C-alpha cells in the first residue's frame, strides 16, 4: 500500500478528497470547489486557528481546491504545489478572474488609480498573479480596478532566464518559517519562488525539492566541481550556489537570506544544526 504524504494529500479521519476514494479511510469524501486567493498573500496553517504553525503561504491569484469551509477557515489543497492546509476563508473567492500577469518586482503596490501619490490599496510580492484588463499610462489596470506599475508585471508566459539572479534579489529579506514573500521566507520558499520565476515548477519543502529536482552531483571533500545554480541539500535545509564556492540561503542562523562561503556554511551547519550535506543537485 502506498503511504500518502499528508502534506500533499487531502485526507483527514472525517473528510478526504473524493479522488482518494479507495486509498484512504474517511467518514466522508468531497469534491473540490475551485477558488482563487484574492489576498496579497494568505497563510496556510496546519490547523484552523491563527496560532497554528505556518506551513507555507499562498500568493494572490493562486488556484486552490476547497474541501471544507467552516468558522472562518477553508481546508484546501493548493493547485500549484499540492500543499494541504487551512487558509483564512476571507482570502478566497470562487469567481475571481484567472491571472494574466505575475509580479516580477520584489514587491509592488496596487494603487486606486494611475498615480504614485495616491495611497496604495495593497502590496504584492514577487510571483503573485493578477488579472490585467487594460492600460493607463505607465500602469496596467487590474480587473478589480486597481493599478500596478507596468514594469513590475510580466505576462504569465514570460519567464526569467536566471533563477539564481532572482534568488539573489531576496538578499537580506528576513527569515520566516513557512514564509514565501518578500516580507519573510524560508529556505525552500526562496528556492521555490526563484525557480517558479524561471518557469520551473517545484514542490514546497526541502526534502520534496531534493527528491524531485535535478541530477546528483559528486560531492567532494574539497567542494570542487560545483557550479553556479547547483542546489545544496541538508536534511531539512536547502541553499543555492551563486558561485562554485558561495551559498545563498534563507536560514535561522543569520535570520535572513544570506550569502556566505559554502565551506563556512557546510562546516557550521554540519556541526550545529542539520548535519552533513545530503546531496547536491544540478538542474537541466
What's a concise summary of this model?
Helices cover 12% and strands 36% of the residues. It is mostly beta strands and 284 residues long. β15 (139-142) and β16 form a beta hairpin.
What can you tell me about this protein's structure?
The chain has 284 residues and is mainly beta. The chain has 3 domains: 16-93, SH3 type barrels; 101-155, SH3 type barrels; 163-282, endopeptidase fold (from Nostoc punctiforme). It has 4 helices and 25 strands. It has helices spanning 163-168, 187-197, 206-212, 262-272; strands at residues 16-17, 29-30, 33-37, 41-45, 54-59, 63-70, 73-78, 84-88, 92-93, 101-103, 107-110, 122-125, 129-130, 132-136, 139-142, 147-149, 153-155, 180-181, 184-185, 215-216, 231-234, 237-243, 246-251, 256-261, 279-282. It has a 6-stranded antiparallel β-sheet with strand order 20-25-21-22-23-24. Strands 8-7-6-3-9 form a 5-stranded antiparallel β-sheet, with no helix packed on it. It has a 3-stranded antiparallel β-sheet with strand order 13-10-17, with no helix packed on it. It is globular and about 55 Å long.
Topology diagram in text:
Elements: E1 16-17, E2 29-30, E3 33-37, E4 41-45, E5 54-59, E6 63-70, E7 73-78, E8 84-88, E9 92-93, E10 101-103, E11 107-110, E12 122-125, E13 129-130, E14 132-136, E15 139-142, E16 147-149, E17 153-155, H1 163-168, E18 180-181, E19 184-185, H2 187-197, H3 206-212, E20 215-216, E21 231-234, E22 237-243, E23 246-251, E24 256-261, H4 262-272, E25 279-282
Parallel strand pairs: 1-2
Antiparallel strand pairs: 3-6, 3-9, 4-5, 6-7, 7-8, 10-13, 10-17, 11-12, 14-15, 15-16, 18-19, 20-25, 21-22, 21-25, 22-23, 23-24
Amino acid at each position: 500500500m502506498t503511504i500518502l504524504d499528508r502534506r500533499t494529500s487531502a485526507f483527514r479521519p472525517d473528510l478526504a478528497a473524493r479522488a482518494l476514494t479507495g486509498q484512504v479511510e474517511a467518514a466522508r469524501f468531497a469534491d473540490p470547489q475551485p477558488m482563487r486567493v484574492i489576498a496579497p498573500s494568505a497563510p496556510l496553517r496546519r490547523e484552523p486557528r491563527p496560532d497554528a504553525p505556518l506551513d507555507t503561504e499562498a500568493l494572490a491569484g493562486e488556484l486552490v481546491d476547497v474541501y471544507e469551509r467552516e468558522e472562518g477557515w477553508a481546508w484546501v489543497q493548493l493547485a500549484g504545489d499540492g500543499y494541504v492546509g487551512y487558509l483564512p476563508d476571507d482570502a478566497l473567492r470562487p469567481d475571481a478572474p484567472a491571472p494574466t500577469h505575475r509580479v516580477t518586482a520584489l514587491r509592488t503596490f496596487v494603487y486606486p488609480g494611475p498615480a504614485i501619490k495616491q495611497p496604495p490599496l495593497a502590496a504584492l510580492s514577487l510571483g503573485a498573479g493578477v488579472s490585467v484588463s487594460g492600460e493607463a499610462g505607465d500602469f496596467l489596470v487590474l480587473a478589480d480596478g486597481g493599478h500596478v506599475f507596468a514594469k513590475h508585471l510580466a505576462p504569465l508566459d514570460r519567464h526569467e532566464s536566471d533563477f539564481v539572479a532572482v534568488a539573489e534579489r531576496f538578499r537580506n529579506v528576513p527569515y520566516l518559517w513557512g514564509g514565501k514573500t518578500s516580507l519573510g521566507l524560508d529556505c525552500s520558499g526562496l528556492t521555490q519562488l526563484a525557480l517558479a520565476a524561471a518557469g520551473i515548477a517545484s514542490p514546497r519543502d526541502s526534502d520534496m525539492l531534493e527528491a524531485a529536482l535535478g541530477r546528483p552531483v559528486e560531492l567532494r571533500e574539497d567542494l570542487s566541481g560545483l557550479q553556479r545554480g547547483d542546489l545544496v541539500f541538508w536534511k531539512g535545509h536547502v541553499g543555492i550556489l551563486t558561485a562554485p564556492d558561495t551559498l545563498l540561503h534563507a536560514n535561522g542562523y543569520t535570520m535572513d537570506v544570506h550569502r556566505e562561503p559554502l565551506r563556512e556554511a557546510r562546516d557550521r551547519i554540519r556541526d550545529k544544526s542539520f548535519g552533513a550535506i545530503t546531496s547536491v543537485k544540478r538542474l537541466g
